[in-house]
Specification:
The protein is α+β, with helices and mostly antiparallel strands. The protein is built from 9 helices and 13 strands. Helix 2 runs antiparallel to helix 3, helix 3 runs parallel beside helix 4 and helix 6 packs across helix 7. The longest helix is centred in the middle third of the chain and has 18 residues. InterPro entries: Formiminotransferase_C_sf (IPR037070), Formiminotransferase_N (IPR012886), Formiminotransferase_N_sf (IPR037064), FormiminoTrfase_cat_dom_sf (IPR022384), FTCD (IPR051623).
């Protein structure tokens, strides 16, 4: 299959695992996506990026392949993560519920739709619970029969609670969750970016005020933004999931702001808030309280960047693209 043909069928998975302090372990999980059980390279699959956060003790592994190959690659990585990560001994600031905490699939190519990714995600959740005894999953987005979003499903499951009672969780797939593996969120949606803005304070209450003000559900909030305020490296981080929203940019975004990046899925237009807007809004709100910001970190890429880099990696047969990323994308 030519690169251009392959590009039309690409799917991305931003695999979230509950480990960042053992980098060798995280890379072992990543390599499991691009090699089989005999150590042979899987063609047509690349790991674009590995993002580690030691305070959160959480890593995000960006896996891209055609929709025909994505399930096998991601499932292999999930199996390896489950064999190496024990939630009985996990410690970290970021909320989490599973050794493999989140498995979202995002369509990148124009020949892949949300329904396609939803079916793959559902099949992946089933395969994981069948192949790793004791694992269980909840579904979200286009993998869920009600198409409930990730934020809603996390609230229903109890993902945000500090003390988890596994006996109260009702998974969609698999047995009652155990502490060993926890429960994994598996689903499909339009692309989601992570944009984290650090504010120069240790005051978590202030961070929560800022987070609440930019949250989509708040009056004047930013469409598509789901957000938490978390202690991070001695400061407070405004950690945002930037969901893609259907249609063009909101009318309020035209007042000198950076254009909202847009893309299409199945002929429908989607867009997402730019990082510059989120940073500016956090800076403005923090400044009202006499606090500055220290910087912004993007976890992963925009949808267009993800597709472009994946096509480049796959055309060169580069599975461990994360090792070359700093040379081609800064």
């Amino acid at each position: 299959m030519s690169c251009s043909a392959l590009g039309r069928r690409l799917v991305a998975c931003l695999l979230n695992i509950s480990e960042a302090r053992r980098r060798d372990l995280v890379e072992t999980v990543a390599r499991s996506a691009i090699t089989d059980t005999h150590g042979n390279k899987r063609e047509g699959i690349t790991v674009l990026n590995i993002f580690n956060d030691v305070d959160y003790n959480r890593s995000v592994i960006t896996i891209v392949a055609s929709i025909d190959l994505i399930r096998e690659a991601v499932l292999s990585a999930c199996e390896r993560a489950c064999s190496l990560i024990d939630m009985n001994v996990h410690e970290g600031i970021h909320p989490c519920m599973g050794a493999v905490d989140l498995v979202p699939l995002y369509p990148l190519g124009e020949e892949v739709g949300l329904d396609d990714c939803g079916k793959e995600a559902h099949a992946l959740a089933t395969a994981l619970t069948e192949q790793v005894t004791g694992t269980s999953a909840f579904l979200f987005g286009w993998a869920d029969s009600q198409r409930r979003g990730l934020a809603k499903r996390r609230k229903e499951i109890g993902w945000f609670k500090k003390v988890l009672d596994m006996s109260t969780i009702k998974p969609d797939v698999g047995p009652q969750p155990t502490r060993r593996y926890g429960v994994t969120g598996v689903g499909a949606s339009p692309y989601v970016m992570n944009c984290n803005v650090t504010i120069d304070t240790r005051d978590l209450a202030l961070g929560r005020i800022v987070a609440s003000a930019i949250r989509e559900s708040s009056p004047g909030g930013i469409p598509g933004v789901q957000v938490m305020a978390l202690p991070h490296e001695g400061d407070v981080e405004i950690a945002c999931n930037v969901e893609s929203v259907q249609g063009g940019p909101p009318l309020s975004s035209s007042n000198g702001e950076e254009k909202w990046p847009s893309f299409t899925i199945g002929g429908q237009i989607f867009c997402h808030a730019p990082a510059s807007l989120i940073t500016a809004r956090v800076a403005e709100l923090s400044r009202h309280h006499g606090v500055g910001i220290k910087g912004t970190a993007l976890v992963g890429f925009t949808p267009r960047e993800c597709q472009r880099l994946a096509e480049r990696a796959l055309s060169n047969g580069t599975g461990e693209f994360w090792k070359e990323l700093h040379r081609v994308h800064m």
